[in-house]
């Protein structure tokens, strides 16, 4: 087990998708998200960013504070904690379940909720993770949040 920034547990032994089914799913059902994720990944690798494997997903560290998931590719800040990583992993599971619908059902609403509704969330004291797709990603990623839903602890 390799520990990366912030003590996130990474598994260096799982550096490939393990089953034919996962590879087939990524190559067909989730093709669009995975192609977009691959492009982001390659651009960030060219820029010298570090990557690790977590639960058969490619995790790449970037400078942005927010996380992003595209298919089997997760992009997070190196200061992000385990909850953020597990939350983003939950989005990869949503992608595998919804395939091409993921972009409409989860991806686009998530970007809009993150970018356009920050003022609303602050004004109403609503957690970012209260939105349906974020709550679902937490559930799939087995993230438990306390009273302060936005907290890493």
Helix content: 40-55%
Number of helices: 6
What Rg, in angstroms, do the CA atoms define?
15 Å
Share of residues in strands:
5-15%
Strand order of the largest sheet: 3-4-6-5
What report would you give on this structure?
The protein has helices at residues 20-27, 31-46, 82-98, 102-116, 118-124, 132-140; strands spanning 2-3, 9-10, 51-54, 57-62, 68-70, 73-77. With 153 residues, it is an alpha+beta fold. It has a four-stranded mixed sheet with strand order 3-4-6-5, with helices on both faces. The chain is globular and about 45 Å long.
List keywords for this structure.
6 strands, two-stranded antiparallel sheet, 153 residues, globular, four-stranded mixed sheet
Brief account:
The chain has 153 residues and is of the alpha+beta class. It is built from 6 helices and 6 strands.
């Amino acid at each position: 087990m390799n520990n990366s920034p912030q003590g996130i547990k990474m598994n260096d032994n799982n550096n490939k998708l393990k089953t034919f089914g996962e590879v087939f799913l990524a190559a067909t059902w989730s093709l669009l998200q995975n192609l977009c994720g691959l492009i982001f990944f390659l651009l960030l690798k060219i820029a010298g960013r570090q990557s690790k494997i977590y639960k058969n997903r490619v995790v790449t560290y970037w400078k942005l504070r927010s996380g992003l998931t595209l298919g089997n590719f997760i992009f997070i800040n190196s200061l992000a904690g385990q909850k953020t990583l597990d939350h983003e992993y939950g989005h990869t599971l949503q992608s595998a379940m919804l395939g091409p619908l993921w972009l409409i059902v989860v991806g686009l609403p998530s970007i809009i909720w993150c970018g356009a509704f920050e003022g609303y969330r602050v004004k109403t004291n609503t957690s970012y993770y209260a939105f349906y797709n974020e709550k679902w990603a937490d559930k799939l990623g087995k993230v438990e949040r306390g009273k302060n839903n936005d907290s890493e602890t």
